[in-house]
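Q: Give me the 3D complex with zinc ion.
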Amino acid sequence: MSKTLFDQALTAAKAYHAALPAVAEFQPWPDDITWADRAGNQIPGAALVQSDPGFAADGIPAVAEVHALQQAIMALAPYAEWRHTYTEEEVGHDFLQRYGWFELVGPTGHFHSLQTRMTIGYWGPDLTYPWHQHAPEELYAILSGSADFMAKGDEDRRLVPGDTRMHGANQPHAMITHEHPILCFVFWRGEGLADDPAMSAD
Ligand code: ZN
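A: Here is the predicted complex, encoded as structure tokens.
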């Protein structure tokens, strides 16, 4: 049942990791992965991963592993332990209805590892993800849809499926979706893997 779907997503994630040089260079595939048997948690945004995944943005991406992982994540969405990091005071009610993330691999993930944190994040159209930061270094990799990414000290850039973007330790960053949603695979490395991001001070 759902364990099979998680195994298929992990296999797709590993193939994806090997296929994208920027991802493989960010960190080696962990060698301490074990199944953690965590219960699912559904939130409003989770259903949108299947009903509005963002295909319209750029069609099927050129790299087959990106499409395969996106399909595996869609299949997994009803069983994943979806979370909200933020409060309504921080991001507003609408944001919380159309956003969510879950940890595929990591200290509190469906698959346990202390070497990495690999999360899947989804944001619906026309959302502003305010400036935030965290101690671990981060690599965003786009599975479907598109968004404008901003980071202090770096050029703004619109990312589409197959693109990646790195954020440094405690580098404030933000994101805006427009007419399309976005589905991202996010990798963390370094200290503080189990911590939540914090809103930036200014
Ligand atoms: Zn981040």
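A quick observation: Residues 134, 138, 167, 173, 197 surround zinc ion (CB under 6 Å).
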